[in-house]
Amino acid sequence: MGKKQFQAFRGGAGNGYAGYAMEIIKTVGDYRVWRKDLGPDLTVGFVPTMGALHAGHMKLVETSGRANDITVVSIFVNPLQFGPAEDFSRYPRPFEADSLLCREAGVAAIFAPEAPTFYPPDFSAYCEVPGPDRFLDGASRPGHFRGVCTVVLKLFNIVNPDRAYFGQKDIQQALILRKLVRDFSLDLELEIVETVREATGLALSSRNVYLTPDEKSRATALSRGLFRAKEAWTRGEKSAETLKAMMRSEIEASSPTRIDYIEAVSQADLAPAETLSKPSVLAVAVFYGKTRLIDNVLLD
Ligand code: AMP
């Protein structure tokens, strides 16, 4: 769909493509041709994902739709951000269902490159943000954020968005990428969108499909622990030790397979803090069965 057609179909600001042709673009070259054809006047909101889309991803799309003329979603399971023992090969890839959701939400284009063309065999450039990548998931998943920063920088260069949307669910990722945008003077705004949860409090995640019903119900302990600790913080409890102990007792009561971390860190550099008087994050990573779940709350 070209710019003229787009403007004719557009029903006001936002994801005006709803109900009309959505492009599925597989190569960098095709994306660039498509983008050029739209002209320079339209603002582009960008939602990078690994697919297996759920209401959390769609909230990013909706938020983008309110602020931009068009929204582009990327779907790419990025091998660079998975460790050798992680779930890269079994990560869910329901592309048809994802396309349908995007089409219904008025997304203008899905950019879904194939790994071998996206990363040619001699690909060797990378990008990292040392510092905040040392803690939390950075400590548990060596190389993860290097993989994330590399793919996101590459995607930003291709998609060339005015704004990009990331979920608070992966707060460390969002804060590291915000630093990447600032340090490299990238010409875009990075927005962080609140975590979408099930009614039970469980944060939506593409990995929730791995959970048995029993694991899923036990995993609600993560958000309960986080909310309880946040409430105590709001009432004046600023000791990280005390708040971590509250979360630990709630989580341990759910018989997790393994607790990876229960942390209280500063929002500024993601380093562990003892007293939570400045903006902070309470963050947890816990295994139920083989599934590693993360969640967090912000203390602002
Ligand atoms: P992923 O496909 O898991 O890489 O996630 C793509 C984007 O969706 C990331 O910015 C995530 O932080 C965001 N996201 C994932 N789950 C949620 C959720 N429950 N609520 C809001 N955003 C989310």
Would you kindly provide a written description of the structure presented here, covering whatever features stand out?
- The longest helix has 16 residues.
- The protein has 2 domains: 191 residues, 3-Layer(aba) Sandwich (Rossmann fold); 94 residues, Pantoate-beta-alanine ligase, C-terminal domain (Pantoate--beta-alanine Ligase, Chain: A,domain 2, 2-Layer Sandwich).
- Helix 10 runs antiparallel to helix 11.
- Helices cover 38% and strands 18% of the residues.
- It is globular.
- The termini are far apart.
- Helix 8 links the parallel strand 5 and strand 6.
- With 300 residues, it is of the alpha/beta class.
- About 2% of the residues have low confidence.
- The structure holds adenosine monophosphate.
- The site of adenosine monophosphate has 17 residues, from helix 3 and strand 5.
- The site of adenosine monophosphate (AMP) has 17 residues, from helix 3 and strand 5.
- Main beta-sheet strand count, sense and barrel state: 6 strands, parallel
Alpha-beta content class: alpha/beta
Number of domains: 2
Listing every helix as H and every strand as E from the N terminus to the C terminus, the arrangement reads HEHEHEHEHHHEHEHHHEEE
CATH superfamily placement of the largest domain: HUPs
- Distance, first to last CA: 43 Å
Average pLDDT, to the nearest integer?
94
**Spatial strand sequence of the major β-sheet:** 1-4-3-2-5-6
How large is the radius of gyration? 20 Å
CATH topology of the largest domain: Rossmann fold
Low-confidence stretches: 8-13
Helix proportion range? 25-40%
Number of strands: 9
Q: Report the bound ligands by name, code or SMILES.
A: adenosine monophosphate
> How much strand content do the residues show?
15-25%
Assign an overall shape. globular
Number of helices: 11
What's the level 1 CATH class of the largest domain? Alpha Beta
In CATH terms, what is the architecture of the largest domain?
3-Layer(aba) Sandwich
